[in-house]
């Protein structure tokens, strides 16, 4: 099996998923992991796909030429062997909410504090809400904490950022419960 | 006593509706022992339902007293035969996982407080009011008796926090 990362984005409308997956089906591709969502007015698809024979990313890309004509942008990345496997994500899982009046640097300042401490962001969503006069920025991110950092210490780490940006930040544990 | 293998989806036995226990015969006694052994052997487990070890009887065991989330509010080790939820109140979202569905978790909304009726290991009718994590665990295990997995109950994708009501 050879794995590829496939990204497709374009103006949202009904039928995008069906067109994309029809092509994948006829190519004989498996969809391993995928996450697709509407972002602004665009529909963005990100998929890890596998094919038993194809090895060349350009060959994969060629199959999507009809989509490009329909104004969907398609990008294919050929994964190195093992690139499809998720690394072991140990450590406590937490959700960080950051929200406040919109201003530059909210994502960067928070991400910088996390990156410097080896806190791994596994999911990140941001959205601009509120009115045009009073825009509010909302960021939700999930991260795994390395040994030695817990929810309380992370909150303390982010306290200076909270004061500097004048935003609200909360951190909570969202470890899955196995039942 | 026996620690049994926990069945993993797509084993069809996980999707069947279980039958009520009639009399407390050897099969039931053995099942209860095996459920408890299997739960405690798994270490992190706070509950096991009969179909997870291949039985089609309405029996579950729950014990959240050793878990961080449940140790302050629980009824210890609960053996529940023919359990039935009489009342539900409130809502609580937890990210659930299940030994029968490895490597996947999802946010599930369940009642925060429940009143549950069952027959215990001694054959005595009991009614218990559970809340918080214990209530969630009981509801999760009882779903197994009706062939439901948490996958049937997932209430939101991760992006759900941004979804808003239509104006």
Q: What are its keywords?
A:
heterodimer; A: 179 residues; alpha+beta; Alpha-Beta Plaits; four-stranded antiparallel β-sheet; 41% strand; B: 167 residues; five-stranded antiparallel β-sheet; three-stranded antiparallel β-sheet; 2 helices
Explain the overall architecture.
The complex is a heterodimer of chains A (179) and B (167). Chain A is an alpha+beta fold and 179 residues long. Chain A is built from 5 helices and 9 strands, in the order βαββααββαββαββ. Chain A has 2 domains: 2-78, 2-Layer Sandwich (Alpha-Beta Plaits); 93-173, Alpha-Beta Plaits. Chain A has helices at residues 16-27, 57-62, 65-69, 106-116, 151-165; strands spanning 2-11, 30-39, 42-51, 73-78, 93-101, 120-130, 135-144, 168-173, 177-178. In chain A, the strands form 2 sheets. Chain A has a 4-stranded antiparallel beta sheet. A 4-stranded antiparallel beta sheet of chain A has the order 6-7-5-8, with helices on one face. In chain A, strand 2 and strand 3 (42-51) form a beta hairpin. In chain A, helix 4 runs antiparallel to helix 5 (151-165). The longest helix of chain A has 15 residues, at 151-165. Chain B is α+β, with helices and mostly antiparallel strands. Chain B is 18% helix and 32% strand. In chain B, strand 4 and strand 5 (101-110) form a beta hairpin. Chain B is globular, with a radius of gyration of 16 Å. Chain A binds chain B through residues 37, 123, 125, 127, 138, 140, 142, 174-179, and chain B through 44-47, 67, 69, 94-99, 105, 133, 136-137, 140-141, 150, 158-159, 161-162. Strand 9 (177-178) of chain A pairs parallel with strand 4 (92-98) of chain B.
